[in-house]
Every structure is written in structure tokens, then in C-alpha cells.
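Case study.
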Amino acid sequence: MPFKTLALASLLVVSIVAPAAEKPVTPQKLVIYTSSKEPFIKPIFEAYTKATGVQIDFVSDGGPVLIERLKAEGPKTPADLFMTVDVGNLWLATEAGLLGSFKSPTIEAGIPAPFRDPQNRWIGLSMRARTIFYNPSLVKSEELSSYENLSDAKWSKKLCLRTSKNVYNQSLVASLIEHRGDKKTEEIVKGWVKNLATDVFPDDTSLLKAIDAGQCAIGIANTYYFGRLVAENKRNWNIKIFWPNQSGAQADGRGTHVNVMGGGVVASSKHKEQAVKFLEWATQAEAQQMFASKSYEFPLNPAAKKDALVAAWGDFKADAMPLFKAGVHQKNAVKLMDRVGFR
Amino acid sequence: MPFRALVWGPAFLLLLPIAALALFATRASGEIFDHLAETVLAPVLWNTLRLSVCVGLASGVLALPAAWLTSYADFPGRRFFSWALALPLAVPGYIVGFVWIGVFDYAGPVPTWLREHAPLVAEHFPRVRSFGSAVVALSLSLYPYVYILARNGFGSVGASAFEAARSLGYGRARSALAVVWPAARPWIASGLALVLFETLADFGTVAVFNVDTFTTAIYRTWYSLQSLEAASQLSLLHLAIVLLVASALNRHRGRSRHADRFAGRRTPARVRLGAKGSWLAFAFLATLFAFAFLLPVAQLFYWCRENEFRGFEFSLARHLGNSLALGAATGLVVIAGALALASARRFLGSSFPESAARFATLGYGMPGTVLGVGLMVALTWCFGSLYAWPGQAVGSLLLGLSLRFFAVGYKPVASGFARLSPSLAEAARSLGRGRFATFARVDAPLLRASTISAFVLVFIDVIKEMPLTVMLKPWGWETLAVRVHQFTSEGQWVEASAPALAVIALACVPTWWMGRKGEA
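After joint prediction, the assembly is written out as follows.
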């Protein structure tokens, strides 16, 4: 009996002490807070684990929830990386001091400057455009020109929009505020609301389906939703893509509004080096290609190839507005949409 | 003394998230609240009010005739409907919602078919993304609360009471009103209370139908206007409304115990309906069942097939296991708390367990996101992180869900206690049994049925719950509802169909059991 007890006790002691006695090695584990949905982001994390052996634990929830969580956890946070699907939330995280700056020549070589934070606290990993889609049996592409033009009375009862609760519309309106100012933007958005063919949609996918069915002649949606729709159901969709604001003087020809999925290193992470390594991996052509093809987005590293389906949409000029501005104007954009009754 | 701690334990825990919200609310929100007051607050208040009233009314209109027919009438199909009409409880409103959009929206199969074959009808086809649809979808998924409880209430009226009324010269209809209504009213009020609380806390369904209520306004203020402070202020306002509704409904349930005196083993003879009556009853119940249950299940199945049953992989079984475990664990925690409060109320005989209970039931009217963020922040303040020690995340989630659904479990347990006959216990005491022995030998066996009902109701709610689970779940750990959320939030209904069907299947088992039990 006493022997057994002794054996057990020593086993216990050994099991407690042994790990502590080991040399500290580089941690083979990263914790990521991400607002990407699990089904899309998990394969990417798994690819990283396969390539490097580093395990990734992640939480997937809305950007604001994760930001509040990081704030509350403060220096005790287990998170190493913060990733969101919208630049507004990245900007909010930097405003709250949650992201630390990092420097890496690999990243700088991979991702063009407009898609990186000027102070190196976050980078974009893939790009999507929020552009105009139209039903070719109802509209000719010559009739389309710009986001601003959608407020013209000729589109009365023809335009479809997603709910203003969605961050992508907020960023789009924020970009209008940046280029056109508050007052002009309010007029434009008021015009959009006047032209609505039906109530706003809960998501981009049902909006695209409504364009296909002819309920709407035109609508605004993110490119990858269209990619997914076509990839999942290979029938002849009655939807065409249009790149607005491609020509004209100044703001008229500023380019199509784009947004990024991106991430940064959490300021109080204990594994910053590892976290930067993950970002370096994610910015290289190979990973970029995988990222973009899985989600039908545009890779940011020019060396990476687009998915065939995405490449078929052709090239376009993207709005060069520094992305963080979308975050700066977001609150104003929401208030403006409230005022004009854009639900 | 330990009793007091036991009583205040659950109630105190609910103070954590509310305190966190209150603290946020006291911080200045700048002009945000003014902006809300000027633009969205009035429509949001109005929508919340009319949604609650309409869903309450519609649930009653659907549930009461159904409960009446299956309790007191006889017609072909009665036995089937009496339990089948409880099944829609297993179909969450957000699933009814996305199925409706999928089927009845302009691009969906029904309007498309109509445009090709009956353009005139198609032109006047009602809009789906609307207030009316939200009312219908919520009522179809919530009416079973009223249905099940009303049937219980009807069942508590014995034949002797009827006969007494008839012997006094009352006609059939009048005796029904005079005897059944007073006995069933508290049950119906309890059912309506559940419907109203669920409606006030709903986010998933109203978001699908694009109706702006308090819950969506809170979400938007936090997410888009970047002000957790103003969102907390809205949340406290919302909490005040819930409190008002709760106290208004409580008044209706106060004087209700005399009914049991009429309870008898014998139930009144059913009225056999004539051919026309039978047909009408059958048509009404069949339509209700078809829209509330068959249609969503059939459409989900159709999407599954369209997706070549890709969703049915091994991970689905794991998520199902997680849902099951979470539901069962929460059920046990809630029952433990409810029994503690209810027995304290009985043994201490003072009123404070009652007020503690009333306070603790507030969690049911709180939207999951609101309770979730309050709890998340409060627990992080206490422990530094949600992952400070192993198992903490699971514990937090369990705590959150238990607070959220405490009322669901407490009500049946408390009414079980209320039905305990004091004279029976007094008899046992007079035979020399102690207080606790009496409880164990006499009262506990009588409480079994209501305790099981409480467990089952909580279980079903946890299986369906989405926002709180999404917020507090440990990493790499998912339930069916979380899975559904990941797809529906991106409008991917086809992919969401497999986990959604699994949610319904899992919740169906206890619902079916409950429906059967009422049938006996």
C-alpha cells in the first residue's frame, strides 16, 4: 500500500516538474481570433499546420465581439493574431491599441503598399471588390457608369441593395464620404433608397439571385459571392459584372471600391515572432493563390495567379483610397444611412 | 443560512452580466444615443411592440383552437395531431425564416412558378421580407408553447366539474367558459409569457425578414456605430420592457390554484364532430402542421439533396454530440437551480426566494448577444480571460445558457411545487416524519413529472440557441446551431440545410415525447 502511494506521488511530482524542466522551445501553437467563417478559414489554417507543424487554435466571431474580447483580456489575452474580413474593424482595433506594429521585408515585398497599414500594424491578405451587378436582359452595360449614377431617377424601381447593417455597405458609403463629402454622399444614398426595387436584402447571395430572377435590374454586391454562386451551381446565371468609376476626371474615375480580408499581430501576444511568420507565409504567392482560389477573391501578391473563374471577370482599376479611411468614416456613414432611411 | 446562499446564488450570477452592461451604460456614449433617439428609436420601439402583440395574438389564435379540438373533440386524425402539433417547437424561427425566404421570395420556386403559370397571382403575391412574414414565422415556431400548456390546462379540468356546471343548467358552451377558462387561464398565460419572452429576445428571425427591433438596434449600435456604451443603454431599456411584460403577466397567474380541486381522474367525454366539423377541424390542423413543420423539413431535405448530401459527414455527428451534451448539461444546471429556489420558497416560506426567482427569470427576455457580451466582459474582468484555466470556456458557456433559460426550467418546477398538497405533507409530518424526510418521501415523487418537463424544455431551447453559443463557445468546439449560423450568415442556405435538419431531428425527440405524454 505505502509503495503504491509513493509511486503515485512521485509520478505526480514528475509529471508536474518535468515539463517545467524542459528547455523553452519556440511555441508550436498560435491562437487566432478571426471574423472569417469557420468553413472558409479552417482549410487555410490546416494548410499552415501541414506546412510548418504549428498548431492553430482559433475563435470565429464578429469583429466587434473579438475586439471587445481583446480589450477585456488586455495583457492576459491568449490571442496572437487578429484577422477580420473588413478593414473598418482592423482600423478600430488599431484605434484601441490592440495591434502591435511589425516589420518584415518578406511581407513588404509580397503585399503592395496601399493594402498595408501605413504604421505596419496590419496587412491585407486578399482583396474583394464591392461592385455593380446587372441582369443583361434588363440592362445594357453602356447604361452603367458609376456608384453615383445609381441614384439617377432612370433607375427608379430597378436597384437592389443589401441591408445597411452590413459592414460592406458601410465601407462603400464611407468611401463615398471620402471622395464626395458628407452632403453630396447623403444625396447620392438618398437617391439609391428612392430607386429601390424592393426591400433591402439580408445578404449578397439572395440579392444576386434576385437579379438573376429579374426582380432587380441592378445591384451592388461583393465579387466573391458571385464567384461562389457560379462555382456551386454551374447553370447559366443571368447576371453580369460591371466595374464602376473606371473613367472620368478625378473622383469619377477613382476606380471600383475594394476591401480586404486582413490581419495583424495582437499587441500583447507572447508569440509575436511566430505570428509574423504566419503572416509571411500567408503573403507568399503559393499561399495567396490558395487563399484566393478557395474564396474567389483577388490575391494581393502580384506574383500569385487568380482563380480561372475570377480571372474571367477581367481587370479593373481599384479605388486607391487608403483603406483605413473606411474605418475613419464608418460611423458617419451609418448615421447618414439612418438619416435617409436606408435600412 | 446556507439556504439563503443557495437562493441568491443563481440570481446573483445574473447580476454579473447586468452589472457589466450597467457599467458600460454609465460611460458617455457621446452623440450616439441622441442620434438613435432622433432616427431609429421610435420605429424600433413601435416594431418591438407590435411584433410582440401580433406574435402573441397569432400564437393564441393558432394554438387555442388546436388545443381545444385535440382535447375536447373527436374526429379522424385527432390522436396524430395531438402530439404532432407540438413538433414545430423543434423548428427554430431562424430556420423557418430562411426556408421561407428560399421558397417564397421572388427568386424562389413558388413565385417563379407563379410568374410562368399564373402571372396575375404572381403580381399580387405578398412580399416575403416583411413584418407580416416575421409575425407568421415566429408564431409558427412559438405557438407550441401555448398549445402544450393549454392542453395541460384543459387536461386539469375533470369531468365532474363539467357535470356540476351542466347540472346547474348551464349549456355546453357556457359551462365550458365557466369551468375551463378559469382553470386553463394560468396555463395559457404561462404559454403566452414564453412566446412573448422568446419574441422579445429574438434576433435571428427578425434579421432574416429585415424587421428592425430592439435586438437588431442593439446589434447595429454595437457593430456599426461602434458604441458598446450606447448599445448597453439600449439593452437596459430593453430589459425594462421585459420587466414590465413579466410583471404584467405575473398578475394573471396569481390566483389560480383552486382549479386543481376540480381535477379528477376522469376526463370529460369528447364531443364527436359531424362530417363537416371533422373535415374543417382536419383541414385547419393539417394546414397548421404542414406550414409549421412539413414545409421547412421538406425544403431543408430538398436542399440537402441539391447539395448531394455533402453535409452529412462525420463532423456532423460530433456537432450533434456536442449539442446533445450541452443541452443535457444546461438542463441539469437549470433544474438544480430551480429546485433550490422553489424548495427554499416552500421551506423558508418568505417572499425573497420568489423575488430572487423573478429576477433570475429576466435572463430569458435578454437577447443572447446582450447577455453574452455582458457575461463575457464580466468573466474576463474576474479571471483575466475566458481561457484562464482549462474548462473555463465550457463553464462560461454553461453558465450563460443556464442564465438565459433559467425561466424556462423554473416555471414548470415552481408550478409543480404549487400543486403539492399541503395537507398531504402535514399528514406525513403528523406521523412524525421530519421536514426533509417528508419532502423526500412525499413531495419529491410528485415533482418528478414537472422536473422532467423543465429539463426537456431547457434542452430544446439550448439546442436551438445561436448567438450566445457562438460568442462563448470554446475554440475548435462547435454545436449544430453554430454550424447553421456559419452558413446562414453568408446566405448559404443549401450548405446550412444538413446541420439545420440535424437541429430539428435532435429537438424533435424530446418534443415528440412531451406531445405523447400530453396525449395519454
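Observations recorded in class. The longest strand of chain A covers residues 123-134. Residues 76 and 268 of chain A are 8 Å apart (CA to CA). We will return to this complex in the next lecture.
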